Amino acid sequence: MAEFNLQPRLDATGSEAGDAVALLTPHVEEYESVAFGEDSTDATERDGVLVPDAYLEIDGVGVFAEIYTALTPEQSVVDVGLWGPTAERFPVRVQHYALQQISQPDLYEFHALDSKVTLVIAESKLEAEEVQREVPGAALG
């Protein structure tokens, strides 16, 4: 188990499943607290988005945020999945203006990604899903 999982979702028109490995390898090599996930997942393609089988297991919210921030501007990356099969913690992207919508903020850890988005980190999927219900859809991500 890892504290966090992170999985890029790629534009299927110009990407192959192996592209995710090439995209993630520099981060595995740079950080001791990052490794490729061992649990098997199947690569899938849906609505022009390729969800590869490669994902990262990451310990430490700072490293997680750095890698997320590095991946999002990549041209082939459509989105980044923040939960995975071995994650112990579950981040939700929330626009700063909507943080006051969270009814029990003491349950969560907060980590600002930039001047507009904060990761709200839950200890369980149920708590993360509660954040997703409380925050307006336009403010997620």
The averaged pLDDT comes out at 93
Q: What order do the helices and strands follow?
A: EHEEEEHEEEEH
The amount of beta strand, in percent, is: 25-35%
Low-confidence region ranges: none
Please give the largest β-sheet.
Answer: 6 strands, antiparallel
How large is the radius of gyration? 15 Å
In helices, the fraction of residues equals 10-25%
Terminal Cα separation, in Å?
A: 25 Å
Number of beta strands: 9
Structural class: alpha+beta
The count of helical stretches stands at 3
Q: Top keywords for this entry?
A:
alpha+beta, three-stranded antiparallel sheet, 9 strands, six-stranded antiparallel sheet, 29% strand, single chain, 141 residues
Draw up the topology in text.
Elements: E1 4-11, H1 17-30, E2 34-36, E3 44-46, E4 49-51, E5 56-58, H2 61-71, E6 77-81, E7 90-95, E8 109-112, E9 117-122, H3 125-134
Antiparallel strand pairs: 1-4, 1-5, 1-6, 2-5, 3-4, 7-9, 8-9
